[in-house]
Amino acid sequence: VRPAIESAAEEILGLYFPVLDHGFVSLVDVMGDDAAVEQAARVSYGSGTRKVSETRDLLRYLMRHQHTTPLEMVELKFHCAMPMFIARQWIRHRTASVNEYSGRYSVVPAVFYTPEAEQFRSQSKTNKQGRGEQLDPGLHHEAVMRWQFQRDEASAIYDWLLAEDVARELARIDLPLSTYTQWYWKIDLHNLLHFLKLRVDGHAQWEFQQYGQVMAAMVARIVPLVYEAWIDYEVCGTRLSLQERMILDRMINAQGNARSMISVSDGKRDVIADMNGNKVIDIRSREVEEFIAKLNVPERPVFSIDPATSMTAGQVREKWEDK
Ligand SMILES: Cc1cc2nc3c(=O)[nH]c(=O)nc-3n(C[C@H](O)[C@H](O)[C@H](O)COP(=O)(O)OP(=O)(O)OC[C@H]3O[C@@H](n4cnc5c(N)ncnc54)[C@H](O)[C@@H]3O)c2cc1C
């Protein structure tokens, strides 16, 4: 065991944490911890600051001021399995090194994702990229049967093509997006936190959030102080535009609320005018709603993993071979 690996990371290293019905995330390797971030930052700030500044304060300062290069000193390598529709979103994060299972070289396992009844939901009325109300369990049952029918067909054609000695790279072309793929994925902590901020967020697809939550819980164990600062400043913090700051300033001075600051509205644009009717803040109504939402203090999320629920690599292999 290398001294750079903290015991909290050691506890989860090589364990396979289940995600969705057949997916997983496993931490394969890690280099660095909170101390490695601090050590790199001290090069910039000099040893003089060491006496006055606690590690926690320094790491919070870095996060607050987006001094991110010290975070790049920590590297993490994961082994993950996810449905192809999630892999397609995941791969958009260009700052990681990826090596994916090759469907040209190897036979693709017949492992498919099936949403649980709880996640079988209608199209969201408010978010074109989201889901809304839970649908009738009967409809879910029907959908599962239809999915199964289609998957059986796709698997049968795939097996037939392989049996006819058709190249694996061609045999696979009609496998559904629900088919699981897997990869090794290596990234530094700075880019991982950027990835996680986007993917634990409620706007990310629910299935992707499940992966983000497990990985965030791993980060919490490996770099607890960086993690704490990240939750405070990035996950639960927010950005304010010039117009939003102007409204906030007026709210503080007038001891009012955001809505009462809006004096004129034509439905699309809200104009905030001064006592003489002069336009002071020109802002779209949608932005006003978003600003009001930003003022609601979010609940601090808790991301946790329990090693007792993890599997070994061998157990995962057996589970996949059973399919
Ligand atoms: C909720 C949500 C919905 C989305 N919807 C869509 C969609 O409908 N269609 C779609 O195509 N994508 C969509 N995306 C993907 C999104 O546009 C980004 O491609 C993805 O989130 C990766 O973000 P990134 O580029 O910041 O991350 P990374 O690729 O990990 O990059 C990290 C950072 O490095 C820098 N960087 C990396 N590469 C470059 C570069 N070439 N030039 C300049 N800077 C670079 C940027 O600062 C970037 O933020 C969606 C993402 C989310 C979270």
Mean pLDDT rating: 89
Total beta-strand segments? 10
Question: Which class do the helix and strand fractions yield?
Answer: alpha+beta
Q: What's the shape?
A: globular
Helix-strand sequence: HEEHHEHEEEHHEHHHHHEEEHH
Q: Identify low-pLDDT runs.
A: none
Report on the architecture of this protein.
It is a single chain. The protein is an alpha+beta fold and 323 residues long. The chain has 13 helices and 10 strands. The strands form 3 sheets. It has a 5-stranded antiparallel sheet. A 3-stranded antiparallel sheet has the order 8-9-10. Helix 2 (34-45) packs across helix 3, helix 3 runs parallel beside helix 9 (224-235) and helix 7 (189-199) runs antiparallel to helix 8. The longest helix is centred in the middle third of the chain and has 27 residues, at 137-163. It starts with 6 loop residues before the first helix and ends with a helix. The mean pLDDT is 89. Residues 92-95, 129, 191, 194-195, 198, 203-204 line the site of flavin-adenine dinucleotide (FAD). Flavin-adenine dinucleotide binds at residues 92-95, 129, 191, 194-195, 198, 203-204.
